[in-house]
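so im writing up the methods section and need the sn-glycerol-3-phosphate-binding periplasmic protein UgpB record in one place, dumping it here so i stop losing it
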Amino acid sequence: MKLKSILSATTVLAMAATTAAADKAEVQFWHAMGGQLGEIVDKFAADYNGGSDSCQINAVYKGNYTENMTAAIAAFRAGEQPHIVQVFEVGTATMMAAGEKGAIYPVHELMADAGVDFDQSAYLPAVVSYYTDTDNKLLSMPFNSSTPVLWYNKTALDAAGVAVPTTWDEVEVAARALKESGVTKPFSFGWQSWSNIENYSAWHNLPVGSEENGFASLETEFTFNNEAVVNHIQRIADMGKEGTFVYGGRRGDSRAQFVNGETALWINSSAYYGGFKKDITEFEFGQAMLPLDTAVADAPQNSIIGGATLWVLQGHESPEYACVADFFQFVSAAEQQAYWHQETGYVPITNAAYDLSQEQKFYESDPMTDTAIKQLSLNTPTPASKGVRFGNFVQVRDIINEELEAVWSGQKDAQTALDEAVARGNKLLRKFEAANK
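--- predicted struct ---
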C-alpha cells in the first residue's frame, strides 16, 4: 500500500473512532476516591466504556468526601451538576432534603424508568437500610461501604506478650504492655466521631440521638453526652495522660503511625486493607472486631457502615440516565463488587459478591477480611444500631472533632466537651429542621 493510502486509511479510522466516541452519551461521575481507590474507580469506568457502544462514563476525582459533596451542590446551583456524585453516609439527610426539592433522581425510579432489572433484596440489609426512604425504597446506589475495625500489629503484640484485645479493659492492658515493650504510641484511631461515638454507641445498642437516630423525624436531638459515652471518652483521655493513647488527627491522618509501627492498636475503616497489604512489609498485621465495653453491655449489637453511595442528580437527558442505570448495574455486579471488596477492604455490597469471594477462597488466603461483614450482620439492627441520619451532620462532626480535640489536649473533661458538642449540634439540627419543613 502506498504511503498516501496508508495515511488516508489511518485518518479514516481515527475519524471513525472519534465519531463513535462523540456518538456516545456522556455521563459525568464525580467521586472522592484518591490513590489506589481512585485507580480502581478509573478502571471500572474504563472497563465499562470499553464494553459499551452507547455510553461514556467520565470519572472525575473532586477531592475528599466533603469537598466532593460541596462541589456538587455548588455545581447544581449553577446548573452545571454532574449526573452522579459520590456522597458519604453522613450526607444522606442533606441529599434527602435536596430530593424533596426536586434535585435528586431516586435510584429506584431511575432503574424502573430505564427498564433495568433491579432487585433491592440482592444488597446486604445493613447497607440498604441506611439509604432507603420511609417506604423502604432505595434512594442512592450503594457503592463503597465499610465499618471500623480494630487493626493490630501482631508482631508487636507477640513481643509484648499480650493477645489481641476483645474488650476496652483489655485494650488498656495491652496498650500498657506495648508501651513497656517500646511501642511509642500504642493506641490510636481515626474518624473519631464515627469510630468512638457513632459506632461505639451502635456496638453497645445506645442511641446517638432521639427519633431513632434521626430516621423517624427531623425533630431529633442528640443524646451522646450520656454516661456510657462520657466514661468511654474520659477513659481514652486518661490513657492519653499515661502515654498509651496518642491522638493522630482526623480522618485517616494517623494511618502512618500504624504503618510505621509507632501504633500497634488502631481503630479505623476496614477499607484500609488494600493499602496496608501493599505498604506494610515489616510486621504481621490483622483486624479484629471492635472492643466491647463490658461495663455497658454483655455482648455487642452490630456496627454501622461508613463509606458512600452514588446519588443521581436531576437536570440531564434521558439517554444519559439510561447510561447511568446501566453503569450502576455494571458496578453492582458480583465480579466488580468482589474485586472491589478484595482489593480494598470495603464490604461486598451484595450477597452475590460475598458468595463469589467465598467461592474464590478469598477468606482462606486473606484471613479475617470478613471481619467487617460479620460485625455489620452480627445481629438484626435496632433503632439505635441501624445508623444515623441527622441533618447538617457533616458540620456536626466538625463540632465533635473540635470538642474531642479539646479533651485530648487536656483543655476540657469529657462531660463538658460532650455537653457542649450536643448543645452546639442541636442548634444545627434545629436550623436544618426549619429549612426543610
